[in-house]
Structure formats: C-alpha cells, structure tokens
Amino acid sequence: MIDFRPFYQQIATSPLSAWLETLPAQLKQWEKQTHSDYAKWAKIVDFLPDLHANQINLKSAVQSESDFELSAGERQRIIYHLKQLMPWRKGPYHLYGIHIDCEWRSDFKWDRVLPHLAPLNDRVILDVGCGSGYHMWRMAGEGAKMVVGIDPTELFLCQFEAVRKLLNNDRRANLIPLGIEQMQPLGVFDTVFSMGVLYHRKSPFEHFAQLKNQLRAGGELVLETLVIDGDENTVLVPQDRYAKMKNVYFIPSVKALILWLEKSGFHNVRCVDVAVTSLEEQRKTEWLENESLIDFLDPNDHSKTIEGYPAPKRAVILANK
To answer: Model-level pTM greater than 0.85?
Structure first.
C-alpha cells in the first residue's frame, strides 16, 4: 500500500502543517473503502525496479534517462507492469526509453497555459483533480517548492507513484487521494489549479469557494474548463450526456465564467486562452483500451458531439484572491 508518512514529515515544518490536524485520519478512513483493485495496483508499483536516473527532465517533458541501457527483458517487464495500470489518460511520459503514449497530449495544454502564469518558481501549489499527475511534474520542472495534487481515484494514485519511482522517487510532488470538498480551508497555496474539473461539479459556485479557501491572499487561480460560445447569460446544461460523459452539469460561455468568478469574489479575472480540442490532442493509443475523442464526435460533423452539442472547446481563466 502507498505510504503517506513521508508526506506528513514533509509538510510538518511547512505552511501546510495545519493539514496534519485532519489529513492522517482522513486517509486512514480512505484506506478502509478503496477500490477492490487498489491492493493489486499498489503491488505493481512495488514490482517496478529501483533504477537510478542520471538525467531527469521535467522542464520540457516528464523524462528520466540513465547512462546504462535497459536489457530487452528489463524493458519488457517494466512495460508489462505499467500496462497493468491502464488506461493511461494524461501524459506523455518518457521513462528509461519507454514511451507511455497517453490518451491526452497534456503537454499541449501545458504549453498553452504556462506562458500566462505568474512564475511558479519557489511556489507552493495545489492541483485539484490532478489525475495521474502529469502537470504536477511539469510544475516541479518550473521550480515549484512543493506541488500537492488531490484526486480520489486510486488508479491515478498508483500511476503517479509508478512514475515517481521511475523519477528517482522525487518528493517535490505528492498526490493525496481526496476530493477538494474534504480539504480543510488552508489558505496557504500560492497557486491553485483546477483543470478539467468544473463541468463535473453540480455547483460551480461551491467549487469556486473551495478553491478560494485554499489560496493565500493575492494567490493565483488557474481555471481550465469546457466553454461554449455566447454572452454572459449563455450556459449549456446537457440533458443527459455530453460527449458520452454522463456527469457534465454546466458548460458556460467565457463571459459567463468571468462573471461567475467575479461574483465569487475573485478579482483580475481574465481569459488567456481558448482552444478547440483536436484529434491530435485526445486520441486512442496502445496505452488506452477505451474510446476517445473521435468516438465522442458526430462522425459526419466534427464540430458537434455525438449528442449534437458544440464539440469540446476549452478556456483558461486566471484570477486572483
């Protein structure tokens, strides 16, 4: 099982120390109700070899390299173990010459977001709904002091720990398997990311309040979410599914989103990027057995989802507390 004690020791003398009042008990409770496959996934992490990378690149990729070359047998064993943790959704990862070609080219999103951010160097960062942690490693590559990701999905935790093990057990990033609604208001993070989360929330305003509660005064919110074209009053509420997703509740226009954030008490709210999701950015690979974007779009008109809604378009909004 994943051992969280190193993280407790790490935050004991940090601005996050108050979290120790609630976090250990929460994670003990979490361990009692984990997915039935969690023990199997955690063992796969243990099965991965303890290798030492002579070079780690988190600045332009998530990559580890060694002066020695893996034997064909070692390489195949690592690939076998990593494929037991499929599907790999956010990436890519380049680890000892093994290319984990994930469903999402998350580096595309990172390249769109990064130029607009307040410098991440020496910052304490929270990544809400972090998935397997790809963007957390890129944040560490920008010099962040500490990156904490939260995501309750056990598979993502084990994927993150597998990658960490192949990055010399780097401790600058940590994934905690909780949702933001379970976090006490810490109010200490310099930057809070919420990317690909908002449309899964029944109450956008409640989510904004939760994000705001984790930021320090003057801290920066980075919100990335689905949007549609329209004015301040335009919001899509899918009747059933959106792009085959059943838990999509609100897709606002950029103008509506800015108004919502201002109404929630954020200031300096601005949209810095809008991009239609392409078939190059989200696609099927050998590391994903499931359907992907091409299956979610109208086969005769890729400007629409299979349900007839506007195809996925994503915006990046920045704001300050």
So the answer is: yes
